[in-house]
Design brief:
The protein is mostly beta strands. It is built from two helices and nine strands, in the order E-H-E-E-E-E-E-H-E-E-E. The strands form two sheets. Strands 1, 2, 3, 6 and 9 form a five-stranded mixed sheet that branches. Strands 5-4-7-8 form a four-stranded antiparallel sheet, with no helix packed on it. The protein starts with a strand and ends in a 17-residue tail after the last strand.
Length: 138
């Protein structure tokens, strides 16, 4: 569901065989000041499609705080200070057509630590017919 670009602890440095890494190459990078969220869905043709107008909110002990909406490419940049506010519990990514249907990311874990980008899947709302005909047994 999610993929990302990461800096810092846990980053992998690829080296040519027989090459030694310099201390600077193996040192964790500084924590980024912000993170770019890309909110998308899978189109019927296969490629990813960024979703414009997704409302992104931080939810915590102080209630809900609107952080912004995604641009035409489905991106929104959020400062790390917003994500690390005391009492923060989750980010909500709510669709532009059905604001009650959201994808959430918990903020009370280290999941986003060190990431500069994070991809968020927000599937399109679809009506389905759950009527099934079950043959009579016996």
């Amino acid at each position: 569901m999610h993929s990302a670009a990461r800096r810092g602890a846990g980053a992998v440095t690829l080296l040519a065989p027989g090459t030694l890494a310099s201390p600077a190459a193996t040192r964790p990078a500084a924590t980024p000041a912000s993170i770019t969220f890309f909110v998308y869905y899978h189109s019927k043709d296969g490629p990813l499609v960024g979703i414009e107008g997704v409302r992104v909110s931080r939810v915590g002990s102080d209630g809900e705080a609107m952080l912004g909406t995604t641009d035409t490419a489905g991106r929104l940049i959020v400062g790390m200070t917003e994500l690390r506010r005391p009492g923060s519990l989750a980010l909500l990514f709510c669709g532009p057509k059905f604001a009650e249907l959201c994808t959430a990311i918990r903020l009370d874990t280290d999941l986003l630590r060190g990431f500069e980008e994070w991809n968020v899947q927000l599937p399109p709302f679809e009506l389905i017919d759950r009527v099934t005909i079950v043959p009579k047994r016996g």
